[in-house]
Amino acid sequence: MGNMSASDLDVADRTKFDKIFEQVLSELEPLCLAEQDFISKFFKLQQHLSIPGTPVSDTEETDGGTLTKPHNIGGLQSAYSETHMIRQMMIKIFRCVEPELNNLIALGDKIDSFNSLYMLVKMSHHVWTAQNVDPTSFLSTTLGNVLVTVKRNFDKCIVSF
Length: 161
What we know:
By secondary structure, the chain is mainly α. The protein has one domain. The chain is about 75% helix and about 5% strand. It contains six helices and two strands; from the N terminus they run ααββαααα. A two-stranded antiparallel sheet has the order 1-2. Helix 5 packs antiparallel against helix 6. The radius of gyration is 21 Å and the shape is elongated. Residues about 45-65 have low confidence and may be disordered.
């Protein structure tokens, strides 16, 4: 009976960590997507994404600030440049997200190496979802980077058995 309670405790701990991990990812997604959408609209970066070949002025005024843009950009270069600008702003705002997710992953592995399996399943799902929404988004890129860490940890877990 003693083994049964220890086993039940392990399952309870795994379930608790799994719920926390899922909650972090579920709350992070809408926050990042909303912020990226806000940046795109506030700096009027999305208007050029939908109309390739639209001439772009050297500077564009934005409520007290100036947003500079590269000279003579074609449609695809403009879309890439604007996507890059959005990503750079998101990196500055959310620079701690990736390291903190990696810390959470390390904690999960420290608690129980089987958590790497739970994290692999959850991260794969969230990366797939984020890439379906916008494959070039900050969220998609960040979750993809973290997924690589999760996969490495899972590989280590498998090798240790």
